[in-house]
Amino acid sequence: MPCPHLFEHDLNLEYVTWEIRTLFIGTFNPGWGLENNNAQWFYGRTARNDFWRILPTIHIGHGLIPGTPQIWKQFCELNHIAITDIIACLDNADENNPAHVEMVNGFQDNQLGNFDITTTNIPAILEANPTIQQVCITRSSMTEPWSTLFEPTIDWIENHPERGIQLRLLRSPSRGARKGVVGNFTNYIANHWQQVGNYEIL
Predict the structure, then answer these.
(1) What confidence tens digit (pLDDT) does each residue in 62-86 have?
(2) Sheet hosting strand 166-169, strand order edge to edge
(3) How many domains does the chain have?
(4) Is residue 71 part of a domain?
């Protein structure tokens, strides 16, 4: 059977009841119930991903790990942030195929291009939320399959200059992307997001 997103019911921002100014877009979190996936929400594999340390450090001066989805959503509401992922489903993934399980289980983004992919309709989200001013993709490079997957989003932003949406390509918050990091990982990436990625507090 296909591999849907673990938080598929939140991908279209059904959880949001507040004004959104900044939209974060990640990649994928598999919903197969893998033993090594302890994520409770977006960017929730906190043993290997520092998102919930980095972004709160920028806004409130400290991280939110340990944390819960309720705490993270409250933070998002207070700071006019929403979060989703670009991949909604790996359509032709087979949970009974060991090779597929290995590719998905490794949480290696470069392996996901081996599957047929259904994406989250980000342009529809932008249409429905006219207060969005900033779109942040937590990838600083657009190699394949990401350039293809994000193309409709980037095209929509470019084709709607009247909205004035700023696109930010931010360095990955994953601790697997440590190359070039000097000193404390969280502080380094937080500074990088603001000074190189031009992330703004809105």
Answers:
(1) 999 999 999 999 999 999 999 999 9
(2) 81-85, 22-26, 134-137, 166-169
(3) 1
(4) yes
